[in-house]
Amino acid sequence: MRLIPTRMHAVMDYAVGVLLIAAPWIFQFADESSAAKWISIVVGVAMIGMSAVTDYEGGVLGRMIPMRVHLMTDAVVGIFLAISPWLFGFADDGANAWAPFLVIGLGEIAAAAMTDPVARERSPRRGQAHGAH
Questions:
Q1: What is the pLDDT of residues 44-65, one digit of tens each?
Q2: Where are the alpha helices (DSSP H) in the chain?
Q3: What is the pTM of this model?
Q4: Share of residues in the chain with pLDDT > 90 (%)
Q5: ∠ at Cα 109 (101, 102), nearest 5°?
Q6: Partners of 5 in the beta sheet?
Q7: Number of folded domains in the chain?
Q8: Domain of 109?
């Protein structure tokens, strides 16, 4: 069921990107796990970068990535985040760094599955409605 419009998805993308960049300090694992810290920061920066060039309302630097590709990438990133504590060995580091990775990862998968891939608003760069024929 596609309940999330692309405009809301754009806001969520930027918010989650910032959350991931700040997560090591918010969730207090910046000093405990170097892998968790850098994965969180790099994925957060990548999410913001991808959002900036996606063909939706949040695409501020160009509209190079189609929304369907963006959503597929979000799902893959979500899976990566959800399994990264076990994949990179910081699930048992004592800092509970695994929890935000699992929750944010599952949230990314859900958002990708529930977002309507067709933008409903006019694109300022193309001057026409997305999805219109």
A1: 999 999 999 999 999 999 889 9
A2: 6-26, 34-52, 67-87, 98-114
A3: 0.86
A4: 77
A5: 20
A6: none
A7: 1
A8: 6-114
